[in-house]
Amino acid sequence: MAQTAVADSDTGPSLTELARRHGLTKAGRLPSLPEYTRHLWSYRHFIAAFANAKVSASLGSTKLGVVWQLLTPLINAGVYYVIFGVLINTKQNVDNFIAYLCAGVFVFGFTQTVVQAGSQSITANMALIRALHFPRASLPIAVTLVEVRNMIASMIVLIAIVLLTGEPINAQWLLLIPALLLQSFFNAGLALFVSRLISKVTDIRQLIPYILRIWMYGSAVLYPVTFFSQRLHGWELALVESNPMLIFIELVRHALMENVELAQPAPLLWLQAVVWTVLVTVGGYVYFWRGEKGYGRG
Amino acid sequence: MADSEREPTVIADNAHVVYRIYGSAAAGSQTPLASFKRIITGKKSAAVREVHAVKGVSFVAYKGEAIGLIGTNGSGKSTLLRAIAGLLPVERGGGIFAAGQPSLLGVNAALMNDLSGERNVELGCLAMGMTPAEVKQQTADIIEFSGINERGDFSSLPMKTYSSGMSARLRFSIAAAKKHDVLLIDEALATGDAKFRKRSEQRVRDLRQEAGTVFLVSHSEQSIRDTCERTIWLESGVIRADGATDDVMKEYETYVNK
Ligand SMILES: Nc1ncnc2c1ncn2[C@@H]1O[C@H](COP(=O)(O)OP(=O)(O)OP(=O)(O)O)[C@@H](O)[C@H]1O
Ligand SMILES: [Mg+2]
């Protein structure tokens, strides 16, 4: 047999030694967290281009194109209004139930779509992952960016609804920006978390619709938040009211509407929102980074 | 040994690669309840199957070498290249080491089929780590080299409208636009026509001259003989021969024609 290079497993250690002597890096070595973050940052243009590509690929096959970004939240709000505002009357004593409901539906919808899309972001792009070398966190982050775009469209619809239902514009509206910014980071963390979780334990994908539905019922999306304080007490109430989605929804309602009853005082809500965001964003990112080298395995 | 003066660029030391396939499960084990039970009990999906595709491969590749990789279908060539590129993890106990970041150019290197060739060039270049300025500067050259516009303005049409040779050309052109320390080519030239094959083989030689190492997987004896002076023969995930192209080719041919 012709041999120019060593092909013997006996010489194993010396090959590794040779690699070290020449400063070769191990394929599939996990970079340190700061190194990974720098690498990810240098791929920001790729992330943006990928997000844009996803939008144009999904809208490209429709005739109305971008109009769907506004149409989808409108239809959504309409359906929920007919069911929960008219058929099953859950409005209780909320003054402006349409705006209240839409705020809940849109804010929850933002996180919901990020989780759904994020859960696919690794598994659906396996060919790309196996073909090209880029920081994998680009994929869930790009998915979040796509949904941020859709969220902005639905916020435009929401603001129109809020104005049409007679809420006045005031300085408090500016609070919408930090609230949604926090939620965007929270969502990115969540997308990173679920994408790794599902690439490892594929079965969980089957549960995601149920988890999201339970989460929605626990976030006072379809009925006033006072619904909980009327029925639950003590630690049960505290548990429900520390739900980050409930907090984000409350913050948006608080920012846009005049007379809304909050579950907790606003400063407390902000504090919790910040804590949740930091926790989920950092936790999700670290969790995803630790799996970086295994995503191609599929 | 000659490694005192030659500089190694890729070293594989007893590398094993195992694919794990989930979800070839029987009906009934995919319900939410069954999934939930599995998660609670911490058991992996009942139907995890393993394919041991590369079994303890060791070799050293040096700067300026072009190495052909041959073997029958399913022998693990593509898998080995993916592992060199760091796209597939190598099992514990062994390792693959490389200078810089090896780039893989494969038949399956899926770009986005719904997008135009131009957008794919942009996306592919960014994914290789180019800056937007470099991308802008190179886009025209890449499309020119690929020659997809020879029959009209195809670069602005979605890639799903391309013939397989056209998309292979575009993929190769994108990958060849960048200088690589280690370039891994997996049958990417196979579907190109004779004219493009000649042009791309010239490009491979240029890339090698720029002091890189090139791995070429091909079922075409001619393109291996034309570009590579060293060849590795992989069979069922094990190296059967490693040496001068002529010798290895001869051994391989007697094996195949048996
Ligand atoms: N994604 C995958 N999941 C599971 N097994 C895989 C996967 N890809 C390849 N394999 C298995 O790994 C082995 C080696 O496959 P590989 O694609 O590396 O072969 P190859 O030498 O490139 O073959 P070809 O000449 O047909 O391209 C085969 O047994 C194949 O079934
Ligand atoms: Mg192959």
Automatic annotation (TrEMBL), chain A:
Key words of the record: Cell inner membrane, Cell membrane, Membrane, Transmembrane, Transmembrane helix, Transport
Membrane-spanning parts: 66-88, 97-119, 139-166, 173-195, 207-225, 268-288
Positions of the ABC transmembrane type-2 domain: 64-291
The keyword Transmembrane helix is assigned to this record: yes
Bilayer topology: Multi-pass membrane protein
Cellular compartments annotated: Cell inner membrane; Cell membrane
Family membership noted in the UniProt record: Belongs to the ABC-2 integral membrane protein family.
Name of the molecule in the record: Transport permease protein
Species this chain originates from: Paractinoplanes bogorensis
